[in-house]
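Operator note (shift B, R.M.): manual run for Glycerophosphocholine acyltransferase 1 requested after the automated queue skipped it. Running by hand, logging everything below so the morning shift can see what happened. Input copied straight from the record, untouched. If output looks odd, do not overwrite the archive copy; leave it for review.
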Amino acid sequence: MLDFCYVANLLLFLYIMAFQQSGFLFLVCFGLANSTLAFAIPLLHNALVFHSIDKVTSIFIHAMPMCVVFTIRWFPEQSSRIWYAEFKPENLEEELATLLQLNLTESKLPDKVLYIAFPAATTLLVFLGQMMEFILLHFIATHPKVKRCIRFHEDKDHMNLFRLVTNTHGDKSAFLSAYPFLSYTLGMTFGGLFASAPVGLFYIYFNINTAFVVIILFSALWSGSRFYVKVFGLYHMDQENQVEGQVKVQVRLESPFGEELGSNV
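Run finished. Output pasted below as returned.
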């Protein structure tokens, strides 16, 4: 499946591997990790199921960036000690102040700037990500030479979230059926804006950020526990039904008419 979560993970990989001093890149990574990627866990019912590679992979893709940027934001010195380069998330505020030509008061950027910067950057990246997906799926991936290299292009239902949504719910909405890409892009863009609205609070306040991370991870644990209860519950019911069926057969065979019933069968 090709979707924006992989782009967000790639940006975080570039940040921790090569651009640890970039404040703008940390702004983007922190915003995406605590908005669209984090909200995907409860919305898509990502479950922490240890024996399922598929579910563990989904949790890793959506939760790992949130945990990494949390550690870098609030524990930069400890993070730098175990890494080959020093992390400086505070460069974010300095670079924003330079871009907006603001004077830092006590080496701190006004909170209202951060409240606007995170949603603006995150929403812009989500929108550009949708444009990139459109070009990749409808132009690059459809080229005959590319199709011979990308086998999963034939999986039209699950190649990305756009195709999954339109193929699953396209006939239930007139607007979605008439303008599938436009409706999906607008939905993802406004969804990114809504999800990134509180990110400024997460960056400024440690307690709020911690509570958010705990809630998101708890939702993954809750979905995983429900999965185990459902699976083992169904298995237990199936075992009970088998035992009950065996008991009924045994009772019928031991009844005075057991031989007659057995001969009729």
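Quick read of the result: Confidence is low (pLDDT under 50) at residues 259-265. The chain has 14 helices and no strands.
Leaving this for review. - R.M.
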